[in-house]
Design goal:
The chain is of the alpha+beta class. The protein has helices at 10-30, 33-49, 130-142, and strands at 3-8, 52-58, 61-66, 72-76, 80-87, 95-99, 102-106, 111-117, 121-126. The chain has three helices and nine strands. Strands 5-8-9-7-6 form a five-stranded mixed sheet, covered by helices on one side. It has a four-stranded antiparallel sheet with strand order 1-2-3-4, covered by helices on one side. The protein is elongated. The protein starts with a strand and ends with a helix. The relative contact order is 0.19. The model has no long low-confidence stretch (mean pLDDT 90).
Amino acid sequence: MTYRHTQPGILILLTSVLAALAGAAVAWRVGQWPPAIAVIVLMIAVAFLFSSLTVEVGQGELRWYFGPGLWTYRLPLAEIREVGIVRNHWWNGWGIRTAPGFRLYNVSGLDAVELRVGSSDVRRIGTDDPQGLAEALKAQRAG
């Protein structure tokens, strides 16, 4: 393995906890516990699944996964045409998003590495180490 980095999903964790607390407060106020429990369980699941984003470069591929790694995304390095460092707008959001012109995988922050794949596919991998990831991808593709 040439490169491995895990970014904590502080923003998603904080947002999930606040949403769960808000749901519990509203339920307590109006006395509707079943919907509140559903919101709390959903927010705990979101916090668990998106608690971090791990990115790995090695063995001819780029891999990334959220939280405990229930699903892993893989991309052969040979399919990557271009690598660049970008800064997302806050309105692009966090998690897994499809925005005009690209797909975004992000847990916190605005920095990302943009990958041009094929003729029109663009993917952005959010990271708090954009320089390190971009350099690892360029080195692996060159070597």
